[in-house]
Specification:
Blueprint (H helix, E strand, L loop, with lengths): L2 H88 L1
Amino acid sequence: MTIEWLRDLVLIIFAAGATIVIIIAGVLMLLLYTKVRPILNFTRKATRSAANVSSFLDEELSRPSVQTAAIIGGIVQILGLISRIRGGRKK
């Protein structure tokens, strides 16, 4: 048994070990992916549902509230202008 033969034997053993590790890692990743995929699909659907709810709330609550606040602000501005005009005429 020469040093070259021992070197070749060690290389073959390490190559076989690396191949086995890569195959096992691939199988584990495939199993993990099949277990995680339904969770990811559910999360995607839940995210879409939350986005739809958010859109609905924006359209049905936020926009009318902002419009109402703008109208009230305009009315306050008009009343302030009228009170300044009346106050200016009295003096």
